[in-house]
Amino acid sequence: MSGMELPAAAAGGVPPEIGAGRYAHLHGCWEDVHREYRSELAVLQEGLRTAAQGSAVSSAVTHLLGAGGKRVRPLLSWLCAQAVGGSAAEVAPIALASELLHGATLLHDDVLDDAAQRRGVPAARILFGNRLSILAGDLLMTRALEIVAGLARPALVVSFSRCLADLVEGEVLQDEHCFRADVGETVYRRIVELKTASLFGWTAEAATEVAGADHRTVAAFGRFGRGIGAAFQMLDDWLDWRGQPALVGKAVRADLKEGKPSLAVIYGVQTSARVRAWLRDHLRADAPAPTDEAVNDLGAELAQCGALERVREVVGAEVTRAVTALPRTAAPAAADRLALFAELLVGRDH
Ligand code: FPP
Ligand code: MG
C-alpha cells in the first residue's frame, strides 16, 4: 500500500469511532485527492528521489522516502496555494522542502525513540544504523534549506529556520517531561505546537506567500496550518492507543513506554483513580518497564473512563476551529476542499 492511500475498508480494522460508512466515504475522498494531484505527486516523488543522489547516505534516504508516506504537507501547500488563487505548480519548492524536512525529522526521531518500524518497513536506523540515519536526516534538512534559499525570499529562509528551531525545541520540551505523571494539557499542547504544528504552519504560510497572498491572508493560513497540524499530532497520539500496527506502519502503544506525555493519559489522570494508581505503580524511575499486558490494561481503562473519546472530541474541535477561522479567499471552492482535507487528516486510521 502506498502511504498515500487509506487501506481498503474491506481489509478490516475500521475504528468504531469512524464507522464503516464514513470510512468508505473518506477513503473515496483520499483517492480523489490522490488522483487530482497525480502529476504534482509525481514531480514531488522525483524531487525526493534525487534529493540524496550521489551522497554517501543515499541508501538511508532512499529507504525512508521510497517507503511512501501520506504526503500531507505537500498536499497542504498545494491546496493552500490554490485557495488564495495561485497554482500548485508554483509552490512545488515549498511542497518539496516541507516533505524533505519532514523526512529529516523522522530519521532523527526514530533514533531518539529507538523505533524499529516506520511506514510499514524497518526504520532506517535498523538497516543502516543510528549514525547514518542521523547524517541522512542532516542531509535532507540541508537540501530543504537549499531549496528554500533558492526561492530568493529572505523572509522564508528566516521563517524556515525558526521552524527548524521549533521542531528541536519541541523534542527537547517533550524529553524534559518524559516519565512524569504531572504533565498537564498546556505543556502537552506546547509540545505539539512546536514539534508538529510548526511545520504545518510554515508550509501553509510559505505556500500562500509564494502564491502572492497579502500579509494578513498569509498569517491566517499559517494559523490554519498550525491548527490542523496540532490536531494531526493529537490524532497520531490517539492512534498510538487505538490504531493497528499493520495500518499505522509503526509500533503502537509505544508512547507510554517511551514516557511521552499524551492527551489521553492527561485526561485519564483527571478522571480515573485507576489511571492515577497505574501511573504511581509504573511511572517511577525505579520501576521496571511496564509489560505489554499492563499497557493494555491502561489502554482499556483510558477507553472505559472516556479519556480516549474526549481526545477525539478535542481533535474534532481543533479542526473545526481551524477551518472556521480560514479567511474568505479569492477561491472559496478551494477553501471548501481545504476544509475537507482537514477532516480527512483527522478521520484517518493510519
Ligand atoms: C514525531 O513524533 C516527531 C516529530 C514530529 C518531530 C521530530 C523532531 C526532531 C527529531 C528534532 C528536529 C529535527 C530536525 C531534522 C530539525 P512522534 O515520535 O510522537 O511520532 P511517531 O510516532 O511517528 O514516531
Ligand atoms: Mg517517534
What does this structure look like?
The protein is mainly α and 350 residues long. Helices cover 70% and strands 1% of the residues. It is built from 16 helices and two strands. Strands 1-2 form a two-stranded antiparallel sheet. The radius of gyration is 20 Å and the shape is globular. The relative contact order is 0.12. Residues 1-12 have low confidence and may be disordered. Bound molecules: farnesyl diphosphate (FPP) and magnesium ion.
Write the layout of secondary structure elements.
Layout: H1 20-36, H2 38-50, H3 58-66, H4 72-83, H5 92-112, E1 117-118, E2 121-122, H6 124-128, H7 130-149, H8 154-176, H9 185-210, H10 215-242, H11 245-248, H12 263-271, H13 273-282, H14 292-304, H15 307-324, H16 332-347
Antiparallel strand pairs: 1-2
The protein binds farnesyl diphosphate and magnesium ion (MG).
Magnesium ion binds at residues 109, 113, 115.
State the helical fraction. 55-70%
Measured by DSSP, the beta-strand proportion falls in under 5%
Main sheet characteristics: 2 strands, antiparallel
Strand order of the largest sheet: 1-2
Contiguous uncertain segments of 5+ residues? 1-12
Distinct bound molecules? farnesyl diphosphate, magnesium ion
| Average pLDDT figure | 90
Report the count of strand segments.
2
Terminal-residue CA separation: 12 Å
Structural class, by secondary structure, is mainly alpha
Radius of gyration: 20 Å
